[in-house]
Each structure stands twice: as C-alpha cells, then as structure tokens.
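TA notes. Do not distribute before section.
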Amino acid sequence: SKSSEEIKQQNSELSEKVHSLVSKNSAMKLDVEDLQKKLEMAELMIQQFSNQAGSLDANQQLQMALEEKASLEAQVAQLSESLQQLQAERDQYVEKLKEEGSIWQQRVQQLSEQVHTMAEEKEKHMAQIRELEANITEL
C-alpha cells in the first residue's frame, strides 16, 4: 500500500513535470516564431537600406540592422537548442512514466494473484475446519 502510494506520488510528480515541459516547449515555440518574424523584418530593413546608396546615416542604420540580424539569429539558434533539450527531457519523462506504469500494472497483477491464492487457501482451510468439526462431533 505504501509503495502504491509512493508510485502514485511519483507518477503525479512526473506528470506535472511533463505538463510543465510541454508548456515551456509551447512558449519557446512562440518565442522562436516571434524572433523569426523580427529577423524577417530586419532582413527587409537591410534590403531597403541597401537600395539607398551613399547616405552615412543609412550606412549606420544598415550596420545596426546587420548587428540586430546577427543577434536575432543567435537567439533563434539558442532557443532552438533549448527547445530540443526540452523535447528530449519531455521524452525521457514520458518514457519513465510508461516504465512506472508498467511496473505498477505488474504489482497490481501480483497482488491480485496473491489475493486469489489466499482466497483459495481460506476455502481449503474452511473445508478442513468443517471436516475436523464433523470428526469431533462423531467422537
């Protein structure tokens, strides 16, 4: 009974972790999409500035846009890596939950078999008691 409660608690904790990782995963996907949109905007700005020739201010803006693009690309790469790590963790938790579920089912099966065996033994003992009572009555 204690191990049953412990396994239920572990399953509950792992389920919460999986749900947490799934929500983090979703949030990171949204962040990646947002950064990709910003990257696209930066690339459009670069194209616009590239079309304007000669202006020192435009060159500075172009340089800033290129720096922002590089920064955004680095952030996208970092978020993609984090996303992959979270997905790997989530997969590990799911696998662990499956394993514990399997162990749980085996334990339930064993306990069920023990209960069945004990019921059969009880019936045998009850029959022996009745037989002994009959023998005592005869004596």
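Switch to the second chain here.
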Amino acid sequence: MKPRVSLQDSALRNGNFSLRIDPVRSEDVGLYEAWVKYNAEVHSCRMELGIITVTLSPPNPVIENELLLMSCNSSHRASLVEMCWFHNEHLGPTSRTFCFLPGVLSIFRPSMSDAGSWRCQLRYSDKEIISATYNLRVLGFDGPTNPVVYAAAGSAAK
C-alpha cells in the first residue's frame, strides 16, 4: 500500500499507533490489526475499514442540461433500507432533500443551482447510518435568464 500508508513516528512515543491511509481506495476494505510491543507488554487493536463511494454518470464536472445520475454505495453488509441525498443542507432556502428506496438519483436537466455540496446518507436494516459528502461542479452559463443585454453606445457591455 506504499506510499499511501504512513505511521506518525512522533505520535508512537505518546502511545498513538494510528495508521493513516491517503487516499483510501475500494480495495482497502477489510479488517486491520495492530500489535505494539513496549518493554515486555504487547498491546493490540482491531478495526474494520468500510468504504462508501459516490459515483456520477457522466463524471464530474457535469455539463448543464445533460442528464446526471448520482449513485452512492457502501461496503456495509446489512440490507440497504433508504438512501437520502441532501443538497446544500445548511445554506437556507436553496437546500433540498431527496429520500427513496435504494437506487440512483436522476437530475434530468442539471443547472448551476445544482452545483455545490451533496451528502449521500445510507440507512441500513441494522440501524447503521453511513454518509459521504461530494462537491458537484456544473459547467454552464450563470447569467441573466434573458439572453438580450442592452448597453449604451460607447460604454462597455458586461
């Protein structure tokens, strides 16, 4: 897994033997175990790493008015009960929420207002809730709705 994996040598002296994986990939899913020997004592810990992925079709950046499909999947083993998408959750009146049974979120004619933070939340039959945030970029025209602009003769038009 090198060079994506590291240990913080300075933290080891303070009893922190955390493993850092950057970036995490789908193939990193699984059980991790650490053993640390200090003098005559051996300490160990186990941790399971699960992965959640957000997939766009077509990939980011999205072009305005072209069909966009967003999916969210996780390595969690229980049955998926519900998938919710939250758009710009804490940004006031432009925030939106979509919840449905497992499937794909379709945005038929994405616009500039669809850009920004999207959070996918997966709820499972064992009561586990897993989420991931994705920053969506939309390429398009963010100008006046009327395509005619008038400018005084001799001035600059913007």
